Amino acid sequence: MSDTIRFEDKVVIVTGAGGGLGRAHALAFAKAGAKVIVNDLGGSTQGEGANASAADKVVAEIRAAGGTAEANHDSVTDGEKIVQNALDAFGRIDVVVNNAGILRDKTFHKMEDADWDLVYKVHVEGSYKVTRAAWNHMREQAYGRVIFTASTSGIYGNFGQSNYGMAKLGLYGLTRTLALEGAKSNILVNAIAPTGGTRMTEGLIPPQVFEQLKPELVSPLVVYLGSEACKETSGLFEVGGGWIGKVRWERSLGAGFDPKAGFDAEDVAANWEKICNFENAAHPANNIEAMKEMMANLQKFTS
Ligand SMILES: NC(=O)c1ccc[n+]([C@@H]2O[C@H](COP(=O)([O-])OP(=O)(O)OC[C@H]3O[C@@H](n4cnc5c(N)ncnc54)[C@H](O)[C@@H]3O)[C@@H](O)[C@H]2O)c1
Q: Are 222 and 255 in the same domain?
């Protein structure tokens, strides 16, 4: 393997990099020559407490290997402080990896506002705050790479994770729009849905599989998406255990009804199979493509 993907003179923030996947990403970026801000609040998986040693240990590891890194102990909800830290330490910001995360798993009927709010705050508001604080710097320098950490729990749902699934798929909605808004400024924005053996998944994944799902198997994709070599934007990738795949929306061609004559629930019921039939399905890549069948239906009945 050649070392063509390098980050000399590039500054990377990895949030929640004191352990698990974030630590692996930070080590990988540093190995590729990046100056890394290793952010971590150092709390529990449930988002309680704080401990500076998590980020400090990873910085020590990076420095021991000859790399460049600074620790940051702020919460991602204070994103502007993390970005300011990058600017103070290294003078610029090129890549943001929004990785920090917590879990407050509960079935919906037992969900409390505190569980809902804290998961929203760390994943959604935290990713927003860090990215928002970095965004205008990226625009000014006409270069940036942003990676959001989604989850299969958002894409497919997962029992007991309504708050987490909401937050994680919300980040993909954010990815899609930021990809559009960032394109002119060479800011590319992608999302990953990783699987890795970390403290977050310990006890949930069978031990033999857990051992094999090493966090560092997720990082090559993150480093690629964070690199100048990457031209991808708006993508969503499932990744883990040495495998990477891309996810896209698929929509049936659907059923059309006469909007002038009107139609009722019985017509919907009678056409249910057609509405849900994925034969020759469409894969709209944007809003205009998504409107195609709807517009064709209007035209059919109005022309
Ligand atoms: N491990 C998996 O299989 C998996 C699956 C899907 C998604 N994810 C996501 O990947 C990311 C990393 O998770 P992980 O598995 O490495 O878990 P982890 O608990 O090892 O890492 C999360 C890190 O985020 C930090 N953190 C939490 N709240 C923070 C805050 N407010 N500010 C700054 N740092 C904070 C924690 O201290 C921790 O070090 C998370 O967003 C998680 O939701 C993980």
A: no
Residue 5 included in any domain: no
Query: Ligand 1 centre from 102 Cα, in Å?
Result: 6
Beta-carbon contacts of residue 164 (< 8 Å; ≥ 6 apart): 103, 104, 105, 119, 123, 151, 153, 154, 158
The domain containing residue 262 runs over which residues? 249-303
Q: Using a 6 Å cutoff on CB, does residue 22 contact ligand 1?
A: yes
Tally of structural domains, the chain: 2
Q: Would 2 be classed as within a structural domain?
A: no
Ligand 1 contact via 18 beta carbon (within 6 Å): yes
> Measured in angstroms, how far is the CA atom of residue 281 from the centroid of ligand 1?
35
Residue 197 Cβ contacting ligand 1 at under 6 Å: no
Residues 152 and 259 in one domain: no
Buried b / exposed e along 247-269 (16+ C-beta atoms within 10 A)? beeeeebbbbeeeeeeeeeeeee
Catalytic residue numbers, as ranges: 164
Per-residue pLDDT of 208-261, as tens digits, reads 999 999 999 999 999 999 999 999 999 999 999 999 999 999 999 999 999 999
Indicate whether 146 and 48 sit together in one domain: yes
Q: Are residues 256 and 226 in the same domain?
A: no
pLDDT digits (tens, 9 = 90+) for 135-193: 999 999 999 999 999 999 999 999 999 999 999 999 999 999 999 999 999 999 999 99
CA–CA separation, 251 and 287 (whole Å): 13
